[in-house]
From TrEMBL:
Belongs to the multicopper oxidase family. InterPro entries: Cu-oxidase-like_N (IPR011707), Cu-oxidase_2nd (IPR001117), Cu-oxidase_fam (IPR045087), Cupredoxin (IPR008972), CuRO_1_AAO-like (IPR034273), CuRO_2_AO-like (IPR034271). It holds the Pfam family Cu-oxidase. Residues 1-26 form the signal peptide. Keywords: Signal. This is Uncharacterized protein. PANTHER family: MULTI-COPPER OXIDASE, OS04G0561900 PROTEIN. One of its GO terms (molecular function) is oxidoreductase activity. The keyword Signal applies. The keyword Iron does not apply. Gene3D superfamilies: Cupredoxins - blue copper proteins.
Amino acid sequence: MPLNLAGCGLRAFFCIAISFFCIVRAEDPYRFFNWNVTYGDIYPLGVRQQGILINGQFPGPDIHSVTNDNLIINVFNSLPEPFLISWNGVQQRRNSYEDGVWGTTCPIPPGKNFTYILQVKDQIGSFYYFPSLAFHKAAGGFGGIRILSRPLIPVPFPDPAGDYTVLIGDWYKANHTKLKAILDRGKKLPFPDGILINGRGPNGVSFTVDQGKTYRLRISNVGLQNSLNFRIQGHKLVLVEVEGTHTLQTTYSSLDVHVGQSYSVLVTADQPGQDYYIVVSSRFTTSILTTTGVLHYSNSAGPVSGPPPGGPTIQVDWSLNQARSIRTNLTASGPRPNPQGSYHYGLINTTRTIRLANSAGQVNGKQRYAVNSVSFIPADTPLKLADYFNIEGVFRVGSISNNPYGGGIYLDTSVMGADFRAFVEIVFENYEDIYRVGTLMAILSS
Ligand SMILES: *[C@@H]1O[C@H](CO)[C@@H](O)[C@H](O)[C@H]1NC(C)=O
Ligand SMILES: *[C@@H]1O[C@H](CO)[C@@H](O)[C@H](O)[C@H]1NC(C)=O
Ligand SMILES: *[C@@H]1O[C@H](CO)[C@@H](O)[C@H](O)[C@H]1NC(C)=O
Ligand SMILES: *[C@@H]1O[C@H](CO)[C@@H](O)[C@H](O)[C@H]1NC(C)=O
Ligand SMILES: *[C@@H]1O[C@H](CO)[C@@H](O)[C@H](O)[C@H]1NC(C)=O
């Protein structure tokens, strides 16, 4: 959809003004980032593409932080079009207008800058950021976010010898404008051309390990639509953290990572000193895309050898069973916000159930996706700002139903009301033939 900035331009000053209302605790450290977002040539699959770089890098730089840090990220948009970054998994408590999706935050106009002010309050774990407008994510602009525990807080495993960000995702040789045009012409996305690991094609990345030591890999699926399976030849993956929660430490030979998910695994270099394949392959697709990277032992006697290990392909049960096997380690320490007595999960009475079903279809000749029949269109003023400044007529609470009702897809700015401290059960229903992880584009307002 074309970006209509008329309203946002006028109200850009709200975005700036509102930043100063953000309450930060003076004693928590500050980390400052200056980012310049530009277009630049990248060659991930061997052909030249116009990528989105941050400070000249593709993928963008990692954000390293510690629980409660204040992150001050000044983003200069040097693209000729509006740009917006979302901080996937960062809770943005009392700060949702910094979340960087259209709906909460104004895009940064071309040639301008905006300073995101986030506090990673009471959070730990592995996350990533990505551009949220105009299919920019298909061109780059993403990177890892890690939030370490504060030094005094025990972590339920020994300090790893190294800690690597592993961004995996499907990738297209077509540029993001072309991909967007395909949807705008009413077609679905084509099958991807490849899979990237940290922005590189086959055997483009190598992680060096010392024999006998244990390493942490923070794996995020930053792709557009494909679920991916991750595995390492001859090595086990010990899952220790999922998006900010320490898990019961379970050993897997491979791990499914759906779009938007982040997992931390420990890998011990307990094999003979040589190089091993890291394999990422597509799930639930009839033809299987595969890429490889290298786990390189510092005392390696030789290059990778043998066939890359196979993994699950179209089996859905395998994936569901693996997801069900993942459990929170309730005795592990870690900042754990405790809204309304979350230690008593299972005992709290649900006050409301919301069912959200996704669907796909065409509206006005364009390929659209909907939740409970509503395909979201942004209002000209971000909803959080409209809410904050009591601007009438921007959105209507109740413009999306609580339950699917089977109606045809229509466009609206969907907003659902909710009561403060209600205990809501949300059920995602997928009747489409593609595997999707739900993204809630509605705002729950009290
Ligand atoms: C961003 O990078 C571009 C291209 O290198 C440069 O022209 C521009 O001055 C940079 N802007 C900032 C704010 O650093
Ligand atoms: C833009 O960057 C300048 C400094 O480089 C900074 O002083 C200013 O506050 C930034 N503006 C916004 C809206 O973040
Ligand atoms: C859970 O965390 C505790 C406390 O750190 C740790 O001792 C225990 O080994 C963990 N359990 C599992 C199964 O990972
Ligand atoms: C994107 O791809 C289209 C079609 O291949 C091409 O015409 C266009 O110039 C490309 N745009 C950029 C910015 O590379
Ligand atoms: C849930 O409802 C039951 C039955 O009404 C009640 O006995 C119980 O105390 C409620 N639990 C909580 C945590 O409020």
